[in-house]
Write a structure and sequence with these properties.
Blueprint: E1 4-17, E2 22-23, E3 27-28, E4 32-50, E5 59-63, E6 66-67, H1 72-82, E7 92-100, H2 111-130, H3 137-148, E8 160-163, E9 177-179, H4 187-190, E10 193-197, H5 208-214, H6 221-241, H7 244-263, H8 274-290, E11 295-298, E12 304-308, H9 313-324, E13 333-337, E14 343-345
Parallel strand pairs: 5-7
Antiparallel strand pairs: 1-4, 1-14, 2-3, 4-7, 4-8, 5-6, 8-9, 10-12, 10-13, 11-12
Bound molecules: (3R)-3-hydroxy-3-methyl-5-(phosphonooxy)pentanoic acid (PMV).
(3R)-3-hydroxy-3-methyl-5-(phosphonooxy)pentanoic acid binds at residues 15, 18-20, 32, 111, 149-151, 208-209, 212, 258, 299-300.
Length: 347
């Protein structure tokens, strides 16, 4: 019999200044900033069932209704990292029901939305078990989410979140993300679009944790970390002023630098596919012809995120449908946009 429940929906996010490289305890080697997405999200319900002994919780995970024992070790590792914070689970068994809004194996990483939804529901349960309200709920949830997956810490806040200490962002910290001050976001960015072009679906060849580790011995790491600081300072001004051309230049440079780091690590690896490169060149040509503010970013995979102001949605859709879908898995892409952050749902 489940005695306590909590259900949360939490979004994915797309980094503009990338987090790539970390220190022990999931401390980022450089600060990062992301747009929080609206439609790509994970919904997670946790159920606690009291048991008669105080052995560690038995964890059962269900993805879209199907039991997934293969997910349990990742959750158990996360609970271990939480340490004493998760002590309230002693004496209970934990059932996790989770589902993603984006198609399974779409190549969209579910770790940011998944870990943030899990952290929120878990923290909510801790409040219920202890009867004590948590002082800064979102901040603590962000801290917890970070321990599951670094980028998940940023999913706690919309429309824009910063994670990692940066001198120009008062209150920013390595332990949790903070929301960008709404006064610092020009209206053009408030409903910015992110079309996710699915060049490759399925599991990635190299996990992001392996990629982060390779930054430890990377010959260009120091320069890269300092570049990210510089970029973040510039991006703050760009987001405030609505400077679209400068936005595009900075965001595309960040994306290509992320992949350049992968290509120059030891061992090196390459996540870009022929379709990724083809789309980037086509975008650059189209942009030259039409002079529209449509830019790309990449995460740790082959998919291309098209970023652009809402008013160009019609043009972009037409262009993607006529020129780009041939390079996409099943011709598919996801139409997302900047969103407000997580939401608590009825159980
Ligand atoms: O949170 P992780 O460990 O999956 O790393 C995410 C890394 C990037 O997506 C490439 C960049 C970022 O800041 O989200």
């Amino acid at each position: 019999m489940e005695t306590l429940r909590s259900r949360w929906r939490s979004p994915s996010n797309i980094a503009l200044v990338k987090y790539w490289g970390k220190y022990p305890g999931q401390i980022p080697a450089n600060p990062s900033l992301s747009f929080t997405l609206r439609h790509s999200h994970t919904t997670t319900q946790l159920g606690l069932a009291a048991k008669s002994d105080s052995t560690p919780p038995q964890v059962r995970v269900f993805l879209a209704g199907e039991e997934r024992p293969d997910f349990a070790p990742k959750i158990e590792q996360f609970l271990e990292r939480l340490g004493a914070e998760a002590a309230f689970l002693q004496g209970y068994d934990l059932r996790i029901d989770t589902e993603n809004s984006f198609p399974h194996s779409s190549g969209i990483a579910s770790s940011a939305s998944g870990m943030s939804a899990l952290a929120l529901a878990l923290l909510d349960l801790r409040e219920q078990v202890s009867g004590q309200p948590v002082e800064d709920f979102s901040r603590t949830a962000s801290h917890w989410a970070r321990l599951g997956s670094g980028s998940a810490s940023r999913s706690l806040y919309g429309p824009v979140a910063v994670w990692g200490h940066h001198a120009d962002f008062p209150g920013s910290a390595d332990q949790y993300a903070t929301p960008l001050d709404p006064a610092g976001l020009h209206p053009v960015f408030q409903d910015f679009r992110d079309y996710i072009l699915l060049v490759e679906t399925g599991a990635k060849a190299v996990s992001s944790s392996a990629g982060h580790d390779l930054m430890n011995e990377h010959p260009y790491a120091r320069k890269r970390f300092s570049q990210a600081h510089t970029h973040l300072g510039h991006l703050q001004e760009i987001l405030q002023e609505g400077a679209l051309t400068a936005f595009g230049t900075l965001v595309e440079r960040e994306a290509l630098t992320l992949h350049a780091m992968m290509m120059s690590s030891d061992p090196y690896f390459l996540l870009l596919k022929a379709g990724t490169v083809e789309i980037i060149h086509r975008l650059w040509n189209w942009r030259r012809e039409r002079d529209l503010p449509v830019y790309f970013t990449l995460d740790a995979g082959a998919n291309v995120h098209l970023l652009f102001p809402a008013r160009y949605e019609h043009d972009v859709k037409q262009w993607v449908d006529s020129e780009i879908t041939a390079f996409l898995q099943g011709g598919k892409y996801l139409c997302d946009q900047v969103g407000p952050g997580p939401q608590k749902l009825e159980t």
